[in-house]
Each structure stands twice: as structure tokens, then as C-alpha cells.
Amino acid sequence: VWGGGGNGSRGESWPGPPCDERLCSALPLRALIPVTAVCVGLFVVGVAGNVLTVLVICGHRDMKTTTNLCLGSMAVSDLLILLGLPFDLYCLWRSRPWIFGQLLCRLSHYLSEGCTYCTILHITALTVERYLDICFPLKAKVVVTKRRVKAVIGALWAFALLLAGPFFSLVGMEQPDNRTDFSRECKPTSQALESGLLGITFWVTTSYFVLPVVCLNVLYSCIGRELWRNKGRLRGPSTALRERGHRQTIKILGVVVLAFIICWLPFHIGRIIFINTRDTRMMLFSQYFNIFALQLFYLSASISPVFYNLISKKYRAAVYKLLLPHRSTERAFTITREAGGYTETSTRMRNE
């Protein structure tokens, strides 16, 4: 197991359970079953939650705020990440032979890596948008428009997929000479391992995690200082409403960022352990650690909609309306633009 999570979990075979044509698993059965149960649960929750997020944002005009557009795009990225989970589960149960062909081997790694970068960039962009809206509200009204946000989202996707390009050549379907088809594996190529390119790439991609985390800490420090400075300075209903909206949005994004750091730190630690491991005992530790990191990796792609549902009344009401459109009652909401799209006042009305 290599890579610490995602489709990067497939790699060289460490010492483990027996491997033959009938069974070739990365873990003993007593560990494989609970890991599989967790992954299946994450897949179901993640796919359902992210699909609902996309449908809610696309289907409700009042949900199409600049912040929510980024959250919707991030949900698409998380969905694509989750599509790699069945391949990882297959490799946990049967690390070889790889039966899905060369294209799917490379494409699954590429999409997983590209969407990982994309999610990181989206979280950073969301924090920058909140920073501008709170620290420079007048300028933000002019600069942060839906049209520009859509352009930024497109640029983030293009940049992330471009950064992931090397993984098309770093991984592939490997089959040693004079071996049967059973030996086919989807893993880092021999050239990538021997040349050191894989290790260099892992260190570079780790910087894509470290630099945004530093940026997020700086921005949240500035946001917190600004909110503290303005606390109680201005009075009035509109100011209180705007401040409440800021705090609601910061609460959501703060939880998402915290989950991002907790879930993805083991991902990158696992990669560093992998490229620096030579001892057999450490190889075995690396394999088990990376399987733990794999579950956290997919947890990060599944948990955001759960946070939205727990924190945002508006999101809960929109999901309720989407799933139960013919119920006799529904919630009607008005949005305050100054509140960043999350402040809501609700009334109950009866459908006629």
C-alpha cells in the first residue's frame, strides 16, 4: 500500500497474508472486514451527501451565493474522489491481478490526485473570499461577484488537473517478465521508483498541503482579529444580522478546514513514510498506517455535507424541500447579502 490514501493506496506488496489466484489481500480477513464496512459506509454517506449538496445549490436560486458556488464545486470534487473508493477496496481484497486495464489504472490515480488538489484550492479560495468579505466589505461587494467566482472555480479546476498530470506517467499496470497474468498490478512504475521521480513528486505534493494550511492559519487569524475589533463597535439590527451571518459562515468553513487538516495530515505522513521505508518491519507498519490514512482520506470527502446539515438551518430546509416537496409545510427563507449568504430568517407557510 502506498500514498496514504485515495487511489494512491496501491503499490508494492509488503509482507502480508498469502497471495494466490483465489485470494490476494493486503490485510488478514479479521482486519479486512471492518475496514471494508467503514469504507462502504463512507461511500454511501459521501455520495448521497455530495449529490444532495450539488442538487440543492443548483436547484435553489437563493442558495446560489458566491460561497455556496464554491461549496458546490467542492462537492463535485469530493464525488470524483469517492469514485476511486471501489478500486481501493478491490485492491485491498485482491491486490493482483489488476483487471481494469491500463487506462483506468492511470485515470483513477490522476483523478484522485487532481481532485485532491482541487479540494485544497477550493478551501483556500473560500477562506480568501470570507477574508475579503469580513475585512474589506465594501471592496468585496465590487470584487467578489458570481461571474468572477465562476471564473475562479474554472481556473482552480484547470490548475489542479494540470498539477496532477505527472501521475499519468508515474503509475501504470506493471507485469514482470515471464510471469502469468496474475502478476498484473496497478502501482508506481519501475522507472518512477528507480529514478526517484515518485519521491520528488510526493514531496512536491506535500507542499500543496503545507502551504495552504499556512495560508489558512494566517487568513483565519486576520478574520478573527477583525471580528474581535468590530465586536460591539457598531449597533443596529442590520449590523447584528451581518455579524451573525459572518460567524455562521466562519463556523462552517472553520469546521471544514479542521476536518481537512485532521483527515489529510496522515495522508501526507503516509507518503513520506512510504518513500523513506526500507526495513521490512517499517514496510509492514507503513502498509497498516496507510490503510488507516485511506479511511481518513475518504472521510474528508464524505463529511462536509454532514457539517452543512448540522450547522446550517438553511441547508437543512433546502434538503428537506428537495426530498419532500409535497409535504404540507415548508420553510421560506430570505437571504441577507451582507451576511454572506448564510444568515436566514424563517417563516412557516402552508401550501395550498
From TrEMBL:
It is found in: Cell membrane. PROSITE patterns: G_PROTEIN_RECEP_F1_1, G_PROTEIN_RECEP_F1_2. One of its GO terms (cellular component) is plasma membrane. The chain crosses the membrane at residues 31-57, 149-171, 200-223, 252-275, 287-311. Residues 49-308 form the G-protein coupled receptors family 1 profile domain. The keyword Cell membrane applies. GO terms for biological process: cellular response to hormone stimulus. One of its GO terms (molecular function) is G protein-coupled peptide receptor activity. CDD domains: 7tmA_motilin_R. It is a multi-pass membrane protein. Keywords: Cell membrane, Disulfide bond, G-protein coupled receptor, Glycoprotein, Membrane, Receptor, Transducer, Transmembrane, Transmembrane helix. Receptor for ghrelin, coupled to G-alpha-11 proteins. Stimulates growth hormone secretion. Also binds other growth hormone releasing peptides (GHRP) (e.g. Met-enkephalin and GHRP-6) as well as non-peptide, low molecular weight secretagogues (e.g. Belongs to the G-protein coupled receptor 1 family. This is Growth hormone secretagogue receptor type 1. The lineage of its organism: Eukaryota, Metazoa, Chordata, Craniata, Vertebrata.
